[in-house]
Design a protein that fits this description.
5 helices; Dihydrofolate reductase; Riboflavin_Biosynth_HTPR; Dihydrofolate Reductase, subunit A; alpha/beta; RibDG_C
């Protein structure tokens, strides 16, 4: 059975919203977009390439899929990360999209999300990688479908924003790895307990 691996940039107060840029996701009046940049370290990029090599599919919520697709779909061939993102099969969960044609190699999941994700996990293959996608992650964690969390924990408290874990949910995890970086970011890898 395949594993679902959630890979996130997360603040100390559990926020995952708009780590990459000021206009990335301003929903709810979020004004802290781009909060990760001052802490960048090359080990973060190397880790993402490694995670991609251990995965053969992306599972994303609609908003994250649209943000990623808008960035990667138009990239010319030759960018290593862009090529990897565009080539990998992608599954987008949405009740509002009618097609997944805006980003190549994408399949739309619009009904029976939990059952469809269980069926994806049951297929042979490598890991299924997720990032962003807070609404989808909340659904999957509530149904115990996430196997591993690869969290880049940043030394910042944002005060508001979309959270990785939903309020009121108890989740027990076991530590797989902890790796601090000189920038103050700590990689924390957890699996289900």
């Amino acid at each position: 059975m395949r594993k679902i691996v959630v890979s996130e940039f997360v603040s100390l107060d559990n926020v995952i919203q708009a780590p990459g840029g000021a206009e990335e996701d301003t929903e709810g009046g979020f004004t802290h977009g781009g909060w990760t940049w001052q802490y960048w370290h090359d080990d973060i990029g190397a880790h993402f390439f490694e995670a991609m090599s251990q995965s053969d599919a992306l599972l994303l919520g609609r908003k994250t899929w649209q943000i990623h697709g808008g960035a990667f779909e138009p990239m010319p061939t030759g960018d290593p990360f862009g090529d990897a993102m565009n080539a990998m099969p992608k599954y987008v969960v949405s009740t509002t999209l009618t097609t997944a044609s805006a980003w190549r190699n994408s399949t739309l999941i619009s009904n029976n999300v939990v059952e469809e994700v269980r069926a994806l996990k049951a297929q042979p293959g490598k890991n299924i990688l997720m990032d962003g996608s807070s609404v989808l992650i909340h659904i999957l964690v509530e149904h115990d479908l996430i196997d591993e969390y690869s969290l880049w924990v940043y030394p910042v408290v944002l005060g508001n924003g979309k959270k990785l874990f939903p309020e009121g949910l108890h989740v027990s995890l076991r530590l797989l790895e902890s790796k601090p970086l000189p920038s103050g970011v700590v990689l924390m890898r957890y699996a289900r307990a």
